Amino acid sequence: MNIKIFLDQLEYENITYLDSSTEVDEINVKVESNHSKKRRRTSIYIVEMYVDVKTKYKNEETYAISVNYCANINFEGKIPDEDELNQILNEDIPRKLYEHVRALVWNLSSESGSSPIMLKNYDEVMQEQNLTSNISDSNEIMKNDNIDLSTYEQPMVRRYLNLFKPINYRHPHFKKCDERFWIILQQLLFAVGKNVEVVAGKGKFPEIEFDSDNAFTNLENKRRTISSLTFKELNVLMSYLEMKIKTEIPHEIMNMEIDKDYDDKLCNGKAISIEELYCIFNVKKDNTDTNISSFIHKTFESIAYYELQTLPYDKI
Question: How far, in Å, CA of 1 to CA of 96, rounded?
């Protein structure tokens, strides 16, 4: 295994100058890391770590430091098994990157003429960060981001998405997001996503893999997994899928009333048939509107494919 570590981006601001005899009395650190495969058929992975440091003295901000450190890991054709790979990409490499960040922050603060800052070790910072996320407002969908849910509240869209049952899923930042966010994201991915697959993830939990070329313009023709996305990228993906669902469902039936009585009689635990779709949406089989008929058939095909893809995980 060959590892190359490098600094990708650095922002530093000395907001309030302090002389070398004065030490800051509050240090806030936010750490986020993710990993991705450089190319689908290679054994090269990229691990990125984002660290934001903000310090205060007597309740006034002093430093603001933002660092992006990366590691290029080449397994040289010998990719380890799933558990070892996850340990390397999610624990070992981020720990190495963080030590480089600690040294950089020490040098930056020292060169500024102030008392140097030594960040807490990796385990302490991650534990504090996890505790903070656990007590965050449970009504937030994403921290510092507001996602408009109005599209999902339309009767047709809500019923359409409910056809795609969400799967049990885990993400490095799962606890920081409202549960509704994950349900909507998973349903949207299978409803309008491109080449979405369910693959084996860490601890035998499913992982969602998809083509990112349309959702992220700077990552053309690249396969990504949900767990590799940052908060910012998750927000981009949600916005892209929301836009797609507005164009995928014909305008004529966006606000059409569904047959709620019939819908309530259906068992949610079984796969839905195309005949039941016609009944739910109050559409006759001989409907002359090709857009609506095409939509029904496309929806049924998506549901059938989704059920097939998630079958191995239905008992988790």
Answer: 15
